[in-house]
Amino acid sequence: MKVTISPSALKGDILAPASKSSMQRACAAGLVAAKRSVVYNPGHSNDDIAAMGIIQSLGAIIEKGNEGLVIDSTGFSPAAEVAFMNGDQGGAINCGESGLSIRMFTPLAALTSNKITINGEGSLVTRPMDFFDEILPQIGVTVESNGGKLPLVIQGPLQPKNITIDGSLSSQFLTGLLLAYAVAPFEGDSVSIKVNNLKSKPYIDLTLDVMKKFGLKVPENKNYEEFVFHKDAPATETTSNYTVEGDWSGGAFLLVAGAIAGNISVRGLSMSSTQADKKITEALMAANAGIAIDAKAIQLHQTEMNAFEFDATDCPDLFPPLVALAAYCNGVTKIKGVSRLAHKESDRGITLQEEFGKMGLKVDLDGDLMYVHGGNGLKGTLVHSRHDHRIAMACAVAALRAEGDTTIEEAYAVNKSYPDFYDHIKTLGARVKGGIDLSALKEGFKG
Ligand SMILES: O=C(O)C1=C[C@@H](OP(=O)(O)O)[C@@H](O)[C@H](O)C1
Ligand SMILES: C=C(OP(=O)(O)O)C(=O)O
């Protein structure tokens, strides 16, 4: 599916989408909390749909209520055999294309004593999972993988032990282990996970926040180097309601669109969120963008902007919107953290260089650094999402002020995180042709 974006001036206000990081965690916490929880503002991206499917496979019952989703996981119990709900799939779960889902739900599936095959689709089949080959056997789980890639076949039950893991490739493995350790029985007074070189730390804050809100046992966080679970830790909040946060990762594209081509207002992004990508506001300020933040909304308007320096090591998903922003900033913008991009839906440092290169933007890569030579204008042309949702959205946003039309091939990649993206920018006045019939997707999930 191709989408063509013509140069446009944006105007009006828009509500940011639901965060898939928050929604997928809510599904995971809802599963292991073994109770009835209500999740408000649920997302409907492909990654969210994958997470809902996984917890249903693992025995949770999801009902779609008027205001939110009811997750009933009273039948889930660590160390027990789970009655698989997905009929002919037997002991199998499918994580779609979601890196977070496979890395978070594999340790949770291993809480049961079932033999389970874990699979995925698209770019996920090439993303590294060898972490599991090394770590799961240390905690009582047998694992077979395809040379560190999918499919995985695991069998628990997982038994928490003191372990040391590497956090440099992704924080997502730690997210899964923290959720699993929170509910699995362990010997002794405490058990800990030591982590070397943890990256994407704010995502762990989000995990701990969701665990707390679902009343799970929350570990002591020793400076992101060790997480200690104490047996006698007091119970945390025991509410049964969780509201999925507005998405700073998808919202970053709206904010950048406003700074490039707008006079818009974005609602639903909380400054008190722990989401890593809240840092986009710092980049916009460093670029001298027209931004004003108040309690209800973030206002953006187009103005002359300057090149800036930014460290995206702990918020790697900001690279694509940052490149779109930097393209319209005068001078050379320097962004650190390129090494975090190699194993996303595409090798994003190179993909950004190549696709934005087609629009006439010079992007240099030098080890962990990216240099974006901005301020010279972009030309509309044919670009390709490379099956990467964030590349499609970055090109679409950059196209709003390019000279001439930009056509994005495989533009539907946005469904992974932000299926309403083209509708939303259209609402703001973007001239978008082609696109996706979202009605089928929105109805796709039946509780
Ligand atoms: O936990 C999460 O929700 C995510 C963590 C980040 O991954 P890494 O920890 O691999 O950087 C991020 O890039 C990904 O899109 C979502
Ligand atoms: C890399 C991403 O997600 P995940 O790792 O969960 O697939 C992303 O959303 O950009």
UniProtKB/TrEMBL annotation:
<feature type="binding site">
    <location>
        <position position="20"/>
    </location>
    <ligand>
        <name>phosphoenolpyruvate</name>
    </ligand>
</feature>
<keyword id="KW-0057">Aromatic amino acid biosynthesis</keyword>
<dbReference type="InterPro" id="IPR013792">
    <property type="entry name" value="RNA3'P_cycl/enolpyr_Trfase_a/b"/>
</dbReference>
<feature type="binding site">
    <location>
        <position position="348"/>
    </location>
    <ligand>
        <name>phosphoenolpyruvate</name>
    </ligand>
</feature>
<dbReference type="Pfam" id="PF00275">
    <property type="entry name" value="EPSP_synthase"/>
</dbReference>
<dbReference type="InterPro" id="IPR006264">
    <property type="entry name" value="EPSP_synthase"/>
</dbReference>
<feature type="binding site">
    <location>
        <position position="171"/>
    </location>
    <ligand>
        <name>3-phosphoshikimate</name>
    </ligand>
</feature>
<feature type="binding site">
    <location>
        <position position="20"/>
    </location>
    <ligand>
        <name>3-phosphoshikimate</name>
    </ligand>
</feature>
<dbReference type="InterPro" id="IPR036968">
    <property type="entry name" value="Enolpyruvate_Tfrase_sf"/>
</dbReference>
<feature type="binding site">
    <location>
        <position position="99"/>
    </location>
    <ligand>
        <name>phosphoenolpyruvate</name>
    </ligand>
</feature>
<feature type="binding site">
    <location>
        <position position="127"/>
    </location>
    <ligand>
        <name>phosphoenolpyruvate</name>
    </ligand>
</feature>
<feature type="binding site">
    <location>
        <position position="172"/>
    </location>
    <ligand>
        <name>3-phosphoshikimate</name>
    </ligand>
</feature>
<keyword id="KW-0963">Cytoplasm</keyword>
<feature type="binding site">
    <location>
        <position position="390"/>
    </location>
    <ligand>
        <name>phosphoenolpyruvate</name>
    </ligand>
</feature>
<dbReference type="GO" id="GO:0003866">
    <property type="term" value="F:3-phosphoshikimate 1-carboxyvinyltransferase activity"/>
</dbReference>
<comment type="similarity">
    <text>Belongs to the EPSP synthase family.</text>
</comment>
<feature type="binding site">
    <location>
        <position position="344"/>
    </location>
    <ligand>
        <name>3-phosphoshikimate</name>
    </ligand>
</feature>
<feature type="binding site">
    <location>
        <position position="317"/>
    </location>
    <ligand>
        <name>3-phosphoshikimate</name>
    </ligand>
</feature>
<comment type="pathway">
    <text>Metabolic intermediate biosynthesis; chorismate biosynthesis; chorismate from D-erythrose 4-phosphate and phosphoenolpyruvate: step 6/7.</text>
</comment>
<feature type="active site" description="Proton acceptor">
    <location>
        <position position="317"/>
    </location>
</feature>
<protein>
    <recommendedName>
        <fullName>3-phosphoshikimate 1-carboxyvinyltransferase</fullName>
        <ecNumber>2.5.1.19</ecNumber>
    </recommendedName>
</protein>
<feature type="domain" description="Enolpyruvate transferase">
    <location>
        <begin position="7"/>
        <end position="424"/>
    </location>
</feature>
<feature type="binding site">
    <location>
        <position position="170"/>
    </location>
    <ligand>
        <name>3-phosphoshikimate</name>
    </ligand>
</feature>
<comment type="function">
    <text>Catalyzes the transfer of the enolpyruvyl moiety of phosphoenolpyruvate (PEP) to the 5-hydroxyl of shikimate-3-phosphate (S3P) to produce enolpyruvyl shikimate-3-phosphate and inorganic phosphate.</text>
</comment>
<feature type="binding site">
    <location>
        <position position="25"/>
    </location>
    <ligand>
        <name>3-phosphoshikimate</name>
    </ligand>
</feature>
<comment type="subunit">
    <text>Monomer.</text>
</comment>
<dbReference type="InterPro" id="IPR001986">
    <property type="entry name" value="Enolpyruvate_Tfrase_dom"/>
</dbReference>
<feature type="binding site">
    <location>
        <position position="172"/>
    </location>
    <ligand>
        <name>phosphoenolpyruvate</name>
    </ligand>
</feature>
<feature type="binding site">
    <location>
        <position position="21"/>
    </location>
    <ligand>
        <name>3-phosphoshikimate</name>
    </ligand>
</feature>
<keyword id="KW-0028">Amino-acid biosynthesis</keyword>
<feature type="binding site">
    <location>
        <position position="200"/>
    </location>
    <ligand>
        <name>3-phosphoshikimate</name>
    </ligand>
</feature>
<keyword id="KW-0808">Transferase</keyword>
<feature type="binding site">
    <location>
        <position position="416"/>
    </location>
    <ligand>
        <name>phosphoenolpyruvate</name>
    </ligand>
</feature>
